[in-house]
Specification:
five-stranded antiparallel beta sheet; 4 helices; 36% helix; alpha+beta; 24% strand; three-stranded antiparallel beta sheet
């Protein structure tokens, strides 16, 4: 490999990293639309973090499109070599999301994708390969809501932030 080829590949790599960074920043802006550093941004961030923690704790086999649009932003990723507990599979037809590590046989609403675990291996049955997309879920902080998961926000955080280390 000569110097010009190395330079070309380095430039191409930088362009790909910049494109991925722009994409991720757009997804984060979509999940929290408040001005950065504001109280509203902090409240949205807290809501989004709680949604992500709940998602990791409960690990639902399927999240339907209506709930998904309300609570999460999708971050497309490359197909992993092995199933990972924090990665999901989106059906591009009905937009349901299936957990990549299901506890039972699970099918999306339009029945285009079916997942199951057999002998500790993920089995994916798809009508058309282009209907499948691997994604990570980013919690959406809904600034129009004045509560977190049905609780009064003052009850969730009773101490002022500067007293947490006391």
């Amino acid at each position: 490999m000569d110097a010009s080829e190395k330079k070309r590949l380095k430039k191409l790599g930088k362009q790909q990293v910049e494109a991925q960074s722009r994409e991720l920043h757009e997804r984060l802006r979509e999940s929290n639309g408040a001005p950065s550093g504001s109280d509203e941004w902090a409240n949205n961030y807290r809501r989004a973090t709680l949604k992500e923690q709940e998602l990791r704790r409960t690990k639902p086999d399927i999240i339907y499109a209506s709930e998904l649009e309300r609570d999460f932003v999708l971050q497309p990723i490359e197909s992993p070599e092995v199933p990972v507990p924090t990665i999901y599979i989106e059906c591009k037809q009905c937009h349901d999301v299936l957990h990549s590590f299901p506890t039972r046989i699970v099918t999306c609403s339009c029945k285009s994708i079916t997942l199951s675990i057999e002998d500790e291996r993920l089995m994916i049955c798809v009508d058309h390969p282009h209907t499948l997309q691997w994604v990570k879920l980013i919690g959406r902080g809904n600034s129009e809501l004045g509560f977190i998961d049905g609780q009064d926000q003052d009850k969730v955080c009773e101490k002022p932030w500067w007293r947490f280390w006391r």
